Amino acid sequence: MNIIQALINGHDGSFRPKGLTPMQKLALRFVVVGLVYFGFAVIEGMIMRIFEVKPLPMIQTKQFFAIMTAHPLVGIFGSSYSIVFGAFLFLVPFLMKKPLWSFKLANWTFWLITVGTFVFWGAGFVSHYAPLYTLYWPLPADFSQFSALGGAVFILGIALVMLGVSFFVVNIFKTITYTPKGWDKQPSGALFASAIGWTGLRNLFRKKKEAHLVPLPVAAVARGTVDVAFNSGIILFTGVLILVYMVGSLLGFDLRRTAIDALLYKNWFWWGLDLVADGLVLIFVAGTWYLLATLITGKTLFMQNIARAALLVELVVSWTVWSHHLLSDQAQPAALKVVSGEMVTAFELITQGLAFFVTMATLWNARPLKMSNELKFLLGGLLGFALGVPAGIIQADVGLNRILHNTQWVVGPHVHVAILVGLSMTLYAAIYVLFPILTNGAKLYSQKLASIHFWAQLIGGIGMGAFMGMAGLKGMLRRTIYANGEFNVYMILAALCGALLAFGFLCFFINLVMSVGVKGVLGLFGKSRLDKDALLPAQE
Amino acid sequence: MKVDSTIVLWGQTLAYTVYCIVMILTVGWIGWRLVKPAKAGVKPAVFFTFVGFLTVLGVSLHLITLKTIPWVEPDLHRASVQVDRVFEIRVANHEFTLPEARLVIKAGEKVRFDVASDDLTYGFGVFRPDHTMVFQMQVIPGHKNDVIWQFHKPGLYTIRSTEYSGPAGIAMVLPDVIEVVKAN
What is each CA distance from B102 to A493, B107, B157, B176, in whole angstroms? Predict the structure, then answer.
């Protein structure tokens, strides 16, 4: 088979979309869209990397900041949320051994996130609405710099995504607790209590322990989903507030921006935002590590009761750490800085370190293992968080924050290493595990491309974060432009590492497309004739 | 030798680099050993020791910085600190307005920078001629934003907004507007 035929039909023709259940198709659609938006984020990231070396004449300053605004949102909502939600909407029923509560609602989640991301990305691209993802008041309502109409469309796109996210939350909790048609009545209250960790908490004070009704990875999904719910509520509320000012401006009213206290606003918005970075991401990742470790080894998780309890601790920690983002805000009370910003934040070192150790020990106790793609990427993901989390803890210190806040340190070694190495490599490991399950055993086109992707992602991700961090330590700020090449040595090296990352992603993308073929990808968007309650096709 | 941001960041660079090298080598070694057969497993005692180590590490980081970084304690108790000089600075329409064209400070003096914003959220950062940061703070509209600092090295310093306030904010740079002179 020549390359063109392989590209169109898949390299061995083993992938047949017609044989997929609606649930398999839906999960794969989420992955396809997630990877396409990851491609968007990679291209945007590379444009910014090049711009940081030398401002490009074809890109205006305001366009650069519009890219900077869209980049993390496309990466988190369009890419990570799509892949994670697609996987969890398949895995929760798979692990609970019952159908998804509502296939229709899951479909709505898919379309709302896909369309919503495109809407806010498009609004930023066209109107250059650029208040950055932090939306510090009153910048999002500063219509002397930004178009109110462009901003309103941008907020509408975010609201569509949040609506899809809310549907995901309902679907996950209903799937855990509901009774499928024809089944004996399920103990929905007990299932909910087990999922969110209430049962485990009560067990600490009881002689006769209650059994956990929900598997550990599902408990992780449920607890992370609690943070997803709070986060979407905060973002929706803030979006509506900003929208009021935008609509006012469009109707000719100049609403008083001092009506909103900028510090109070910053506190509630960071409380909500941090439920992503320091909440659901860490909880979902820990749950995914546990699932991957047990699937790779075929053994039970090391110290699983403690791991389960730690997920609950992480959930509570995630509600109380936001103040580390306000250590440089002098009006923020000192007690909040020390207790929430420093002490509670340091707990993340413990909870994430514990998840790292439990996963590693589970793998270690099952030696010898085959160094499969999923194991390689899992180790990469573990390393990414092992490097990225302490970099954040360092900055969550009153003394160090004074000289690091808003430098390239926080976005380099902390954010990008945690996301591009920690989170992304964990997601790739999950994709490699799910690929044969979701495609009914389609074969990967090239192991060589998978290996190139692994090394490019690992070296490119750590390298880019490291050079950004070095620039940050030398005083380079994260949200400005240096037109005179002040930090060019670091920025050129970071751009080269970024190019390696982009090359790795291209290898992965080509590998997947060659495995299933363009026809196969398009076939995912056709209707399945199989039962929508079935996760996998019936065995012949 | 007086401790300033250069020394603190040098220490941080050293500690974090060593940590990263050790961690990369550890995960690499684990990956290499995972494919080899072995009998011994991980004992729970090792796990509890590891968790104990992380707890000590998390708490000690802040205690160490509290005791070794000179600006931490005065920063947390700013209201009770007696200062030698106060500079009141206003920010509006993406421009700093300084009380004087050049702020002259004697080395070793305790200085309070009181920065107020009339519109957006900005940043207030002081940088050396080689672009390294001396310190920074956020400037929130409607709130008191003050920071106390002691400069020890004579020279010229630049003020720059360290927070994004829209594309117009990138020009908020005042080169060499702080002059630190030798104390008598």
Answer: 37, 15, 10, 8
Chain A residues within 8 A of B16 when measuring between CB atoms: 390-391, 394, 413
CA distance linking residue A142 with residue A137, whole number of Å: 9
- Interhelix angle A304-318/A345-364, rounded to 10 degrees, is 160
pLDDT tens readout for residues A410-421: 999 999 999 999
Q: Are B115 and B174 in contact (CB under 8 A)?
A: no
| Contact (CB, 8 A) for A115 and A153 | no
> Residues in chain B, how many?
184
Name which of A357, A377, A403 to mutate to probe chain B: the one with the most chain B Cβ atoms within 10 A of its Cβ.
A403
- Residue B181 β-bridge partners: B106
Q: CA A127 to CA A134: how far, in whole Å?
A: 18
C-alpha dihedral, A44 to A48 to A50 to A51, nearest 10°: 130
Task: State the Cα angle at A362 between A359 and A363, rounded to 5°.
Answer: 90
Choose from B8, B13, B16 for mutation: most chain A CBs within 10 A: B16
- Give every CB contact of residue A196 below 8 A, 6+ residues apart in sequence: A219, A222, A223, A226, A312, A315
Specify the pTM: 0.95
pLDDT tier at A1 (50, 70, 90 boundaries)? low
- Which CATH fold would you assign to the domain B83-181? Immunoglobulin-like (2.60.40)
For chain B, the straight-line distance linking the first and the last C-alpha, in angstroms and rounded, comes to 19
A280: nearest Cα among A28, A101, A105, A85: A85
Q: For A145, which of B23, B166, B170 is closest by C-beta distance?
A: B166
Residues of chain B in contact with residue A262, where contact means CB-CB under 8 angstroms, are 121, 140-143
Residue A258 DSSP label = G
Residue A96 · residue A176 · CB < 8 Å: yes
pLDDT (tens digit, 9 = 90+) per residue, A167-186? 999 999 999 999 999 999 99
Say yes or no for a CB contact (<8 Å) between A399 and B133: no
Tell me the sheet residues that pair with B116. Answer: B90
Of A10, A4, A21, the residue nearest A521 (C-alpha): A10
pLDDT of B153 higher than 70 = yes
**Each residue of A426-449: pLDDT tens digit?**
999 999 999 999 999 999 999 999
In angstroms, the CA A320 to CA A274 distance is 9
Distance (Å) of CA A521 to CA A15, A30, A123: 10, 12, 28
